[in-house]
Specification:
It is built from 2 helices and 11 strands. It has 154 residues and is mainly beta. The protein has one domain: Nucleoside Triphosphate Pyrophosphohydrolase (Alpha-Beta Complex). A hairpin with a 5-residue loop joins strand 6 and strand 7. It starts with 6 loop residues before the first strand and ends with a strand.
């Protein structure tokens, strides 16, 4: 039995301003299968560190230079082709710069209290539990049942 598998490595970062707001990216449903309001992030490039990738992706997508991003957990599943899709989840409240939108979508500060009323990307409220609950560090989608996934939190 092989101990290796194909993996897609990505990251996502929750950026807080200390006043109850977080940075969200509004993704266009005509451009992305995973659309709606989501946390910014992206793919980890070949030979790039995890830390370096999240700093780079956040700058490219938001215009912010983040500092001291803390790894708080992971989200992962297997694609229909059997590839593990792994998202490293970071959190920070230290940043410089001014937010700006990019070709990936509109970027803006959103009050956390307003998230439940927004058009969010799939399962975003569940994902936020990993960022907020210290007893959780992993969100794994075990299998797909019709139009939804079976979620497992650890």
């Amino acid at each position: 039995m092989s101990r290796s598998e194909n993996v897609i490595l990505t990251n996502m970062c929750l950026i807080e301003d200390g006043q109850g707001n977080i940075v969200m990216q509004i993704r266009d449903p005509e451009m992305y299968a995973w659309s709606g309001a989501a946390l910014p992030g992206g793919h980890i490039e070949e030979k790039e560190s995890l830390h370096g990738s999240v700093v780079r992706e956040i700058y490219e997508e938001t215009g912010l230079t983040i500092k001291n991003p803390r790894l708080v957990g992971v989200k992962h599943w297997h694609t229909g082709e059997g590839i593990r899709y792994l998202v490293f989840l970071y959190k920070t409240n230290e940043f410089t710069g001014t937010i700006r939108s990019s070709e990936e979508g509109e970027v803006r500060w959103i009050a956390r209290k307003d998230l439940a009323t927004m058009d969010l990307a799939y399962d975003m409220l569940n994902l936020l539990r990993i960022f907020d609950q210290e007893n959780l560090s992993e969100l794994f989608y075990a299998e797909r049942l019709e139009d939804d996934f079976v979620r497992e939190f650890w």
